[in-house]
Amino acid sequence: MPELPPRHWRARLLVAGLVLTLAAGCDEQPTRAAANPAPPPPVAVTVVTLERKEIPVTSVLPGRTAPYRVAEIRPQVGGVLRERMFTEGEAVTAGQSLFQIDPAPFEAAVRRAEAALTRMEATERVALSTVNRLRTLARSQVVSEQNLENAETTLRQAQADLLSLRAALETARIDLNYTRVASPIAGRTGRSTVTPGALVTANQQTALVTVAQLDPILVDLTQPSAALLQQRRDVDSGALRRPSADRAVARLILEDGSEYPHAGEVQFSEVIVDQGTGSVTMRAVFPNPNQLLLPGMFVRARVEEGVTDRAILVPQRAVLRTPRGEPMAFVVNAEGVVESRVLRANRTIGTDWMVTAGLNPGDRVVIEGLQRIRPGTRVRATERGAAAS
User: Fold this and answer.
1) Hey, which of 29, 146, 298, 354 has its CA 20 to 30 A from 71?
2) What would the pLDDT profile of 319-340 be if each residue is shown by its tens digit?
């Protein structure tokens, strides 16, 4: 290979130096950029500013309807059923006749009792007359005292027999009256278990018909005992205010999801907890003028427990769960940085959680953009329903 002239070597060295300088400059610029990265732009989120106000506290409890009164009609005397005096399913009044048992044997018993009573009344009058006559003779010592005492004893026996026969006559008349089987309450009749011509007996186990009073109507509700304890603690501490400690207004939600138009009232709660379910039964009374509610229907009752002014409503979509299962929410502080708060929220009201601890009035809670933030994230907050701040 021929040796290059000196000027060619100098040209090559100059080109190599320029290449090295450019390479060094290119390597230095990315290194400086990596050392000082640009801050990411704030994340856009939507927030809602919390405020404290009076909140009505309600609970939705399951329940079953039950008749206000139920009368199982049974005969009190035995005999042949002659007539059924009502139409099944119709409304009856208190005292209305429902069945007629053959009264002939009982009418005869009344006549026998009346005859025996008349005979004894005559016997009693004779004994009384004898005693009065002997008393006059005894004062004149015409008869002995022994004869007077015997006559007085006979009179007392006649008077006792007279009382017994009067009671027997009253019993016979009561039995005769029982041949007319009447309804003790006003209500609606059910299916009849007998027809005319059937033989019935006194106090038989099978009821002839059942009459149920449906207006008003009862609703038996079940509430967990833990919820009842918490409710009473809230009332005692003043966190929950209610007009009465034992009465509460309730509204029904029917099986088809519609709301019953008439409000009811919780009358009382049981003093015994069901060991199988751990719940307490409460009984409410509702007006039922159109008899829309029938016994045995499944309903849900929205019970107004009271009013609280120590709670804050937070939208349900803003409440998340920690790995331990605790409710939490993201709050934007005054510097526009996200913070996490662990909450105490044990009930929902509509589409919101009722929070009793963890948040304060004026806090800005994130309700949209939760997937893009974490504690420490700088955000650009937009108030719900307002322009970006």
Assistant:
1) 298
2) 999 888 899 999 999 888 999 9
Cα–Cα distance, 202 to 171 (Å, whole number) = 15
Answering whether pTM is above 0.85, one says no
> Cα(95)–Cα(144) distance, rounded to whole angstroms?
60
Question: Are 299 and 219 spatial neighbours (Cβ–Cβ below 8 Å)?
Answer: yes
Q: What is the CATH number of domain 75-101+181-206?
A: 2.40.50.100
Rounded to a whole number of angstroms, the CA Rg of the chain reads 47
What is the H or E stretch that residue 213 is in?
strand 209-224
Q: Tell me the per-residue pLDDT of 335-381, one tens digit each, with 9 for 90 and over.
A: 889 999 999 887 787 788 888 888 888 899 999 988 888 898 898 88
Encoded tokens for 102: 């053959």
Q: How far apart are CA 139 and CA 141, in angstroms?
A: 5
Handedness of CA 74, 80, 83, 87 (dihedral sign): positive
For the domain bounded by 45-53+311-383, which CATH number is listed? 2.40.420.20
End-to-end Cα, the chain, rounded Å: 76
Tell which CATH architecture fits domain 103-178: Orthogonal Bundle (1.10)
C-alpha distance from residue 210 to each of 163, 177, 182, 314, 348 (Å): 38, 20, 12, 51, 43
d(CA 312, CA 352): 9
